[in-house]
Design a protein that fits this description.
Layout: E1 13-19, H1 25-32, E2 39-42, E3 46-51, H2 53-58, H3 62-77, E4 81-86, H4 89-96, E5 104-106, H5 112-116, H6 129-137, H7 143-148, H8 151-158, H9 161-169, E6 185-196, H10 199-219, E7 222-233, E8 238-249, H11 252-266, E9 273-285, H12 297-316
Parallel strand pairs: 4-5
Antiparallel strand pairs: 1-3, 1-4, 2-3, 6-9, 7-8, 7-9
Helix pairs in contact: 1-3, 8-9, 10-11
Length: 334
């Protein structure tokens, strides 16, 4: 671990926590909220917390507290985490991406710019691919070089967003944590081992993810009002579209139809796909979600079968029972 210990009474200490898999975000929030109320979920697979009083309350330094968080997340929920600690949101987030084998990276305020400076400009937290490409075309290749540019020059190159990016390059981030924001979502993701044009392969992965997403919602007694489908293409662009469901639902059929509708709208026949992510948003209590009766006997049979399938998968492992179309197809979920 890259650890430097300093006095622990700094009022603005940020923890940025990354998950190895996105489905554990609600459980991660439950762990963080045991230490501080100032914790915010960052869907699909991260959270940020602002500590200060919590360090004094628990009588622990930042690294010690991070170790407690990691141990509890692993012991209680089986979640593998990486924790970045820093004097601002940006520094903590960039530290968590470089936590290393020990799972914790602590950057003290005095070392923030030295930590950020050598990093590639495209790694600056919040920068867009096009912005990084524009900077690189002008010879600005590192975060430190961006920080060293006059404010007026950055403004001319990147426009108004450049002001905030230049501040972040100096380790300054004026955002504060909004407790609970973003917690009302559940995500699942599939990474393709090879960039693929295969429509059948993509549909199989989409069906498997919709099935998994529905099971997680039902396990938590939640129903979704909206589904967001994010596609990462071979050139690392993320394309996102959202579809609102006719009524809140956690049923696989409803989620699948929404996902297929979004994919059809993309027109991705010639695009090479690297990743597919589904996010269920605007969650409500499942008891408040109305299920309309239909004359479709097949659908009614599948609705009745869902609790049985969920119970079998919980007992024997995820994916034990599912749609035939996804058996032995598609990439593994992340």
């Amino acid at each position: 671990m890259n650890i430097v210990r300093v006095p622990d009474d700094k009022p603005s200490t940020f923890f940025h926590v990354r998950l190895s898999r996105p489905e554990g975000l609600p459980e991660l929030m439950a762990v963080l909220e045991r230490f501080t109320p100032a914790a915010q979920a960052l869907a699909p697979s991260a959270a940020v917390a602002q500590l200060g009083g919590a360090l004094r309350l628990f009588g622990a330094g930042p690294v010690d507290l991070a170790e407690r968080i990691r141990v509890q997340a692993l012991a209680w929920y089986g979640l593998d985490t990486a924790v970045g600690i820093g004097p601002s949101w940006t520094v903590a987030a960039m530290a968590s991406a470089r936590a290393g084998p020990g799972g914790i990276r602590y950057v003290v305020p005095e070392q923030a710019e030295a930590f950020l400076g050598p990093l590639p400009v495209e790694d600056l937290y919040g920068i867009r691919r096009a912005q990084a490409a524009e900077l690189r075309s002008l010879g600005v290749e590192t975060v430190g070089q961006l920080a060293g540019l006059p404010a007026g020059t950055v403004l001319r190159i990147l426009g108004q967003p450049g002001r905030e990016l230049r501040e972040r390059a100096h380790g300054i981030d004026r955002r504060t944590v909004v407790p609970g924001r973003g917690a009302q979502s559940v995500s699942v993701r599939a990474d393709f081992p090879l960039d693929t044009l295969d429509g059948v392969e993509i549909r199989a992965a989409a069906l498997r993810l919709a099935t998994e997403l529905g099971a997680r919602l039902r396990t938590r007694d939640r129903a979704a009002r909206r589904i967001t489908v994010t596609v990462r293409t071979a050139d690392r662009r993320d394309l996102s579209r959202t579809r609102t469901l006719p009524a809140p639902s956690a049923h696989t059929d409803d989620l699948r139809e929404a996902v297929y509708a979004v994919l059809d709208g993309y027109g991705l026949q010639r695009a090479r796909i690297r990743r597919l992510t589904l996010t269920a948003e605007h969650l409500v209590d499942a008891a408040l979600a109305h299920t309309q009766l239909t004359l479709d006997r097949g659908r009614e049979a599948r609705l009745r079968a869902e609790p049985v399938i969920d119970a079998l998968n919980e007992r024997y492992g995820p994916g034990t029972v599912g749609p035939a179309a996804i058996v032995n197809r598609g990439p593994h979920a992340a």
